[in-house]
């Protein structure tokens, strides 16, 4: 399996942790269960030079740290890197200001330098932000990138986000064709983003011929792997892989030796733009409420930020899709398409730090939670293995009944979530109020 997270940011992007540097990223990727991590921000000259000095090529377009810094007591395989970045295109088209983010996968450092030179020749500033802002249409950027190297892969990022999403309510498009024109033929995959999941995207007819992938868009090491795309080889051949193998799997190219096995999803309700609303006034509306009450804040009269669920329902042209839910032997709920049998399934998880935070009744960054996280990942394996595969008795022995029960409930989808809206993350509640009250009362005896 190739467990990938290819959309991340470096310390050179705005609002990103200074810990987002290769050795720390690799350590956390190992903890998370990731074995192929995007470098992020290849367009930033200082970051690109730093990557080149710290990484060595182990296969075509695949890199590892020259000096592997082991996690104390850990038993994680070396983490591979693939050169990636995200580019922000802001421009006018059809009488509207358009804003769209694109994830770009690059086959080599040589190609990365060529792209950066092309962008600088166009007068773009690559130094001010790891995710550069270009006054360039998405269509023209794809043409430029493909002109540099046909192997480059371009994936529209978090396509439903109100700002910077392909279908975003504030500055997006009605279709791939409207956005990319004749370059749409080179868009083989789209990224769900944290506020949508594959099932929501399965309903969009023009995406029937595109792969649906998910990555974390992490701005700190702890957020790596909150969404991932897992690839598997179609046969029992050599498990080594190259840039071409990854790109072809994400494209679902005929003859590819690898394919998408499944994606790991954030609960979309937890995403910052799942429902419509106005954060300042505390207004949060479901699509049904928005349809009934309108798109204006009832408190202040300003326009609501329309959520992803609302936008999906406006876009869907076909009958509502039915999904198939299957519970495997480990109690994990897998979701599959009822119509498109070729669509990879997905699983929806709550990050382990959040599970521990609620189980231990401590803040997600508290020392108690961090210590328990380290204890579990050192002794039971990666976060992904713990959340998906470790037996309840193993988890209970290491961390206690409450943590084991929380993971079991999360695996089966037995949780409650207050949906996110207008830039505010949703709130996960694994244990209901009654369970918490019972625990509080037990503590009195």
Automatic annotation (TrEMBL):
GO molecular function per UniProt: helicase activity
Domain of life: Bacteria
Keyword match Glycoprotein: no
Keyword presence, Hydrolase: yes
SUPFAM superfamilies: PHP domain-like
UniProt keyword annotations, A-Z: ATP-binding, Helicase, Hydrolase, Nucleotide-binding
Protein name listed in UniProt: DNA helicase UvrD
């Amino acid at each position: 399996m190739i467990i990938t997270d290819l959309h991340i940011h470096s310390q050179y992007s705005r609002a990103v942790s200074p810990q987002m540097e290769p050795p720390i990223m690799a350590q956390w990727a190992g903890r998370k269960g990731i074995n192929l991590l995007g470098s992020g921000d290849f367009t930033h000259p200082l970051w690109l030079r730093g990557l080149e000095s710290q990484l060595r090529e182990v296969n075509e377009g695949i890199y590892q740290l020259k000096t592997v810094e082991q996690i104390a007591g850990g038993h994680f395989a070396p983490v591979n890197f693939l050169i990636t970045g995200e580019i922000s295109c802001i421009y006018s088209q059809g009488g509207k200001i358009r804003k769209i983010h694109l994830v770009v996968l690059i086959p080599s450092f040589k190609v990365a330098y060529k792209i950066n030179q092309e962008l600088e020749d166009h007068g773009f500033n690559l130094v001010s932000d790891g995710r550069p802002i270009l006054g360039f249409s998405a269509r023209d950027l794809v043409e430029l990138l493909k002109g540099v190297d046909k192997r480059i892969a371009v994936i529209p990022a978090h396509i439903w986000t109100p700002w910077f999403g392909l279908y975003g309510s504030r500055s997006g498009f009605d279709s791939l064709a409207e956005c990319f024109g004749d370059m749409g033929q080179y868009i083989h995959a789209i990224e769900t983003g944290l506020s949508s999941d594959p099932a929501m995207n399965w309903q969009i007819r023009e995406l029937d011929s595109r792969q649906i992938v998910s990555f974390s868009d992490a701005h700190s090491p702890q957020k790596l792997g909150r969404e991932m795309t897992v690839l598997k080889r179609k046969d029992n051949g050599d498990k080594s892989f190259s840039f071409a193998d990854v790109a072809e799997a994400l494209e679902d190219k005929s003859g590819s030796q690898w394919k998408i096995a499944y994606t790991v999803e954030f609960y979309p309700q937890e995403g910052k733009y799942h429902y419509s609303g106005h954060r300042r006034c505390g207004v949060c509306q479901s699509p049904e409420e928005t349809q009934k009450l309108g798109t204006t804040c009832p408190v202040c009269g300003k326009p609501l930020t329309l959520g992803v669920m609302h936008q999906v329902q406006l876009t869907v042209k076909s009958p509502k899709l039915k999904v198939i839910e299957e519970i495997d032997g480990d109690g994990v709920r897998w979701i599959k398409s009822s119509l498109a049998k070729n669509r990879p399934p997905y699983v929806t998880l709550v990050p382990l730090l959040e599970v521990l935070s609620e189980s231990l009744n401590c803040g997600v960054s508290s020392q108690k939670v961090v210590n328990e996280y380290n204890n579990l990942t050192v002794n039971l394996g990666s976060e992904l293995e713990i959340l998906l595969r470790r037996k309840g008795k193993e988890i209970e022995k290491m961390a206690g009944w409450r943590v084991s029960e929380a993971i079991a409930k999360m695996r089966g989808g037995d949780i409650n979530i207050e949906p996110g809206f207008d830039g505010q993350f949703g709130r996960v509640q694994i244990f209901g109020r009654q369970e918490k009250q019972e625990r509080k009362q037990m503590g009195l005896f």
